[in-house]
Amino acid sequence: MSIEFLKHVIEQYGYLALFIGTFLEGETILLLAGFAAQSPQFGLDLRWVILSAFAGSLAGDQTAFFIGRHYGRKLVARSEKWRARSEKVHAMLAKYHEVLILSFRFFYGLRNLTPFVLGTAEISVRKFFLLNAIGAAVWAVAFALTGYAFGSLLENVLTRVIDNVHHAELAILGLVAAVVAILWVVKRLRRR
Questions:
Q1: In the Cβ-directed half-sphere of 122, how many Cα atoms lie within 13 Å?
Q2: Looking at residue 42, what DSSP letter applies?
Q3: Cα–Cα dist 103/100, whole Å
Q4: Fewest CB atoms within 10 Å of the CB: 94, 100, 122, 129?
Q5: Do residues 16 and 51 make contact, with C-beta atoms less than 8 angstroms apart?
Q6: How far apart are CA 126 and CA 59, in angstroms?
Q7: To 10 degrees, what angle do helices 27-38 and 46-78 make?
Q8: In angstroms, rounded to a whole number, what is the distance separating the alpha carbons of residues 135 and 29?
Q9: Residue 145 CB: number of other CB atoms within 10 A?
Q10: 53, 30 contact by CB (below 8 A)
Q11: Poorest-confidence range of 50-54, 91-95, 157-161?
């Protein structure tokens, strides 16, 4: 998906688009929504951006967990590629357990598959829900604030550039006026 497309979706559908985007995956759309919350032209509130992203991420990962719980073993058994990825996730789960559940959404390549594979593991629904909710909250706050901060930084940089351009324009205009005046004086003096 292109940035322009996501920007258009955020402008048109706001929090619903963010919820659906974070349900499916989400980092890019959340960063853009955080950026948009900083800009008054979009009309998004940062608190609602965070809440929408939290809810979308939590719902998406819980759904994947339950699909994995009910159909995961059959689906993994059908594909060599899925079996290999599932084994990697199970190995990481054995080594890092709670940390993996809290942090998988921060790592590219783990975001979509991990909750599905965790559904095939011997993890209680309650434990997964609690750790998943904490991870989703931290993720939503971190990415929304990153987008917001980037928007604020960009606005400050653009404001300074525009101010500097305005000052540069005035300086160039003054320099041109001085050169024209000097040339006029030199021309007048040569005529005499």
A1: 1
A2: T
A3: 5
A4: 122
A5: no
A6: 14
A7: 180
A8: 18
A9: 15
A10: yes
A11: 157-161
Domain borders along the chain are 3-151
Q: Quote the CA–CA distance of 47 and 140 in Å, as a whole number.
A: 10
Q: What is the DSSP string of 91-157?
A: HHHHHHHHHHHHHGGGSTTTTTHHHHHHHHSS--HHHHHHHHHHHHHHHHHHHHHHHHHHHHHHHHH
Residue type, 175: L
Angle (CA) 166 170 176, round 5° = 140
Query: Average pLDDT for residues 31-53, to the nearest whole number?
Result: 84
- How far is C-alpha 118 from the geometric centre of its chain's CA atoms? 24
Residue 74 token pair:
């059959």
Answer for the pair 119, 72: CB distance below 8 angstroms, yes or no. Answer: yes
Burial of 63 (0-12, 13-18, 19+ CB in 10 A): middle
**Residue 155 confidence (pLDDT):** 61
Query: What is the mean pLDDT of the segment spanning 102-124?
Result: 80
- 187 residue type, one letter: K
Averaged pLDDT score across all residues of the chain: 78
**Dmax (CA) of the chain:** 101
The H or E element containing residue 164 is helix 125-191
Residue whose token pair is 């980037």: 150
